[in-house]
Each structure stands twice: as structure tokens, then as C-alpha cells.
Write a structure and sequence with these properties.
Elements (H helix, E strand, L loop, with lengths): L4 E4 L2 E7 L3 E4 L8 E8 L6 E6 L8 E8 L4 E8 L2 E2 L3 E3 L9 E8 L3 E6 L2 E7 L9 E6 L1 E9 L18 H4 L48 E2 L7 E2 L5 E4 L9 E8 L5 E7 L8 E11 L2 E11 L2 E2 L16 E8 L3 E6 L2 E7 L9 E6 L1 E8 L1
Pfam families: Gal-bind_lectin (PF00337)
Keywords: Lectin, Repeat
GO molecular function: carbohydrate binding
Length: 372
């Protein structure tokens, strides 16, 4: 019997496994994610990844994901009491023979989202309870390099599910919004502005913002190396991440937005200054130039900013408003929740393990920073 080794809080891994492969899972729930990395054989006819109620497919199969390269289709299904259910067929096969692949299975309360090479390819709705899953079983014409499991508990899913937003304070509003108002939507239709703080957006109340360096005019204040909570640190703030970043690592940032705030940012950086690479730059623009209520996400490598991401389901920040931001590290992405609601997921463009500091800058007062 194969086993998944625990490598961090809520993170399990097994490397260089033989196929067929069966492994007992520690328990799945909404928020769990399984990653399978491998390579198809040069004669690959097909393979399958199965979420089973027992060690193999002789038991009930809660979710059967079956790329059939020879037939040119991908079949998703379940099996109950020896009988297969109705097939869900995708005509596009995102795999080729003799090629490396990565498949991620994201589990929500609605079903399984399948992501291949960072592109969503299928959603399979639950037909059997997720609690029935006890084993992962992989078979077919492939070799498997790595299997990883991130449990939902590492992001607090036992208390809430960020993929199904829960009511917040003020009768369902995100905490920090003015009382009686509705959350403001991010600028879905806006065109990305050229990135770089030396060229801020034009216009806005009171004229054009003056160009300014990213550091907002002052060097960051450094935090201690311990893993305990850091209370009321000054801003700009920089803190070393105890133990570094690994899947399952969590960072909690709480604070209050300044009364006349234009913007602030939370950054995951490869060093203790803004001159290092940014694994994630989360730039909250409340009233910056012509931009209102936008959360810009990007990275910086070798001094060059990457492409921006701007879409978000809600905007949880407001002048004088409190906020609680939760950051969860996964192997290939960073998940961010605000006030107990999932906000966005940022797919990493450089290795997670290179990140070792968190920087907070801008128009905000911090009340606590904590690592877990």
C-alpha cells in the first residue's frame, strides 16, 4: 500500500510512484486539491485517475477521469454498485503521447474542476458524496512523477468555504464596507494600465497623481524572525516568513484602511526590499488616479513587471474599514481570501520556494500580521 507523506500543514506528497497506483487519502472536503504530475507513454492509448470508495475500481468510483488518446476523447463518469453512470464526453483531448502533463483536481461543494496545464477543461458535478472517497487509483499508459494533496483544512475550510461566499458582517456585506452600502465590483471591463509606479494612471480627483517610487517615500520597517503574531507594526512593513513558503503555509494580514486612502499593497517577495523579485504583488487601488476599487495582481522578475490580473467577485476594502486578508500557499498558486470570502487565486510565475518575505506598503494601518 502506498502512502502520502505529510510535508507541511494540510499538504501531502508522494513521488516517483509505480502505475497502477493506489493510495489512501486522509479525507477530502470542499477546498481540497489533488495534483498529478506525470508523462504519457509513447504508445499511450489512455489512462484514468479515479476517486474511489476503496483501494481500486472494484469498489464504487465517485469520480472517474479517463482521457482516451486512441479514441480522441475524454470520458468522465462514476460507478455505483458495479454500474457505470451516464458518460460526460469531451471531444478535445489536452494530452499527447510521450509528453509531460500536470492535472489538478479542485474539489468544491458542487463537484470536481479539472485543470490541465493551468487551463480548466471540465467540471464534474457530484453524484456521490465526497465523504465516500477513501482512495486515489491511477492506471493506464503513463508514468507518474508526483501526487500532491492539499486539504481544505489548511485554508480553514472546516470553518468556511471561500468558493461559496458566506454572509459577512452588516447583513452579508464584506467587513470594511461602509454600513448600508453594497460591495463595489472590480473593474472587469477596464483596460489594463501600463504597469509601473513611475507612470500612474492619469486623471482623478484633484488632478494627476504625482509619480512616486514604489516604496511610498520610506524604507520598510523590518519585523522579527519569530513565528508569533506581530501586533501594530509600522507601515511600510517587511517581515521574514518563518520557515519560508511551502504548500499549506498561511499568512494573515489584518488592518484598517486610511481615511483618505488611494492605494496600498501586500507583496510576497524573494528578499527584504522592493528591489527583489515579487512572487505576488496585490495592489489595492481604492481611488488612484482614474481607477476606483480595483485589485491589481501581478509579479516582478528581473525588474520587469508581468501581465496584470484584475477580475474579482467583490471589493472588500473601504476608507476607515477594517479588513482581514488570508493568504494560502499552494504548490503552483496563491489563494487569497478577504473577510472569510474567497477573493482570487494567482497562478505563480516563479517557484513558490523563492518567496521568503512579506511587504506591506501604502495607505493602510496594520493591526496584526501572523504566520501559520
Amino acid at each position: 500500500m502506498a502512502y502520502l507523506e505529510q510535508r507541511g500543514p494540510g499538504f501531502y506528497e508522494s513521488s516517483h510512484v509505480s502505475v497502477p497506483y493506489s493510495v489512501q487519502l486522509p479525507g477530502l472536503q470542499p477546498g481540497s486539491e489533488i495534483v498529478v504530475e506525470g508523462k504519457t507513454n509513447d504508445h499511450c492509448k489512455g489512462f484514468s485517475v479515479n476517486f474511489c470508495a476503496g483501494p481500486n475500481m472494484d469498489s464504487d468510483v465517485v469520480f472517474h477521469y479517463n482521457p482516451r488518446l486512441e479514441q480522441g476523447r475524454v470520458v468522465s463518469n462514476d460507478k455505483q454498485r458495479g454500474n457505470w453512470g451516464p458518460e460526460e464526453i469531451d471531444a478535445h483531448v489536452p494530452f499527447q503521447r510521450d509528453q509531460n502533463f500536470e492535472i489538478r483536481f479542485k474539489i468544491s461543494q458542487h463537484g470536481y474542476e479539472v485543470i490541465v496545464h493551468n487551463s480548466p477543461v471540465h467540471n464534474f458535478k457530484h453524484r456521490l458524496a465526497i465523504e465516500r472517497v477513501s482512495h486515489l487509483f491511477i492506471t493506464g499508459d503513463i508514468s507518474v512523477k508526483k501526487v500532491q494533496l492539499t486539504t481544505g483544512q489548511s485554508f480553514g475550510y472546516s470553518q468556511y468555504n471561500p468558493y461559496q461566499p458566506q454572509p459577512g458582517v452588516y447583513g452579508g456585506q464584506p467587513q470594511g464596507a461602509p454600513y448600508g452600502s453594497q460591495p463595489q465590483a472590480a473593474a472587469y471591463g477596464s483596460q489594463p494600465q501600463p504597469y509601473g509606479y513611475s507612470q500612474p494612471p492619469q486623471g482623478g480627483y484633484g488632478g494627476q497623481p504625482q509619480p512616486q517610487p514604489y516604496g511610498y517615500g520610506a524604507p520598510p520597517q523590518s519585523a522579527g524572525q519569530s513565528g508569533g503574531p506581530i501586533v501594530n507594526p509600522p507601515v511600510p512593513f517587511t517581515g521574514a516568513i518563518p520557515g519560508g513558503m511551502y504548500p499549506g503555509k498561511m499568512i494573515f494580514v489584518s488592518g484598517v484602511v486610511n481615511p483618505n486612502a488611494q492605494r496600498f499593497s501586500i507583496n510576497l517577495v524573494t528578499g527584504n526590499t522592493e528591489n527583489h523579485d515579487f512572487g505576488l504583488h496585490m495592489d489595492v487601488r481604492i481611488a488612484f488616479g482614474s481607477e476606483r476599487n480595483v485589485i491589481v495582481r501581478t509579479n516582478k522578475k528581473g525588474g520587469a513587471w508581468g501581465p496584470e490580473e484584475r477580475q474579482a467577485p467583490f471589493f472588500p476594502f473601504a476608507p476607515n474599514g477594517n479588513f482581514d486578508v488570508t493568504i494560502l500557499a499552494e504548490q503552483n498558486s496563491i489563494k487569497v481570501a478577504a473577510n472569510n470570502q474567497h477573493l482570487f487565486e494567482f497562478h505563480l510565475r516563479s517557484p513558490l520556494q523563492e518567496i521568503n518575505h512579506v511587504l506591506v506598503m501604502g495607505d493602510v494601518r496594520l493591526t496584526q500580521v501572523r504566520f501559520q
